[in-house]
Amino acid sequence: MFRCSAPVFNNDILLQRFCGAAAIKNEKHIANQYNCNQIKNVPDALMNIYIENKRRKRENILKSHPGAVIIDVTSKAEDKFKQLSPFYPVGNIAVPGMEDLKALCVEGIWQGLKVFENFDYDITYFNKSLKDIKRTVRKFGRVKGHYYKGELLGYLEARKKIYLPAYRYVLEKRLGELVEELRELAKTKDLILLDYTTNSLISDLSKPLSHAAVVKAAILNDYGILEEKPNKDKLVQGKLF
Predict the structure, then answer these.
(1) Quick check: helix, strand or coil at residue 231?
(2) One domain for residues 96 and 128
């Protein structure tokens, strides 16, 4: 049974989710108490979506999440869901800040717009193959930032203005049907999204942002889950740019 102890909601999104959960469990008295019929954009309630490290053994993952469906969203996946990886050459991706240009994959945009101590940004990376896509500090020198509309962005700004918009474009405009398939699946099953990194906070600069976290946000249609009040200790530009 759906139970609650008279929660107080401080934003519309939380109230929408609460009403969605009440609706799917047919708890009409709860829905009436919170006037859910007057709330717009109430989403269908989804099961849990977890992010797990791809290197973890599958049997151990399923012990932690019995009955869940495991979806590999890395470029090493062996099914259609590998298209959800930012390394996959989806093609025809609008480049943030250079909308007249198109790229093969999200990672090509991220690498191409990097500005190094000894090298400027390089738009040829927008259309490079996966094996040639990395630009390393060892080869190019210290990373100074990312180029965006004539200015140099820091790491956090670049994630928000370049990486996330480019990835959202792919997930919403190019792979919307694939995301919708996972959304439908998540209505009846817990989902496990596999990635090599599990950092789900865009403000945590101590490690790379998990692209599975962005896929999860797309499934939930709530990119706010990537946000957290920045920790000043983690806003220092890290080595993992």
Answers:
(1) coil
(2) yes
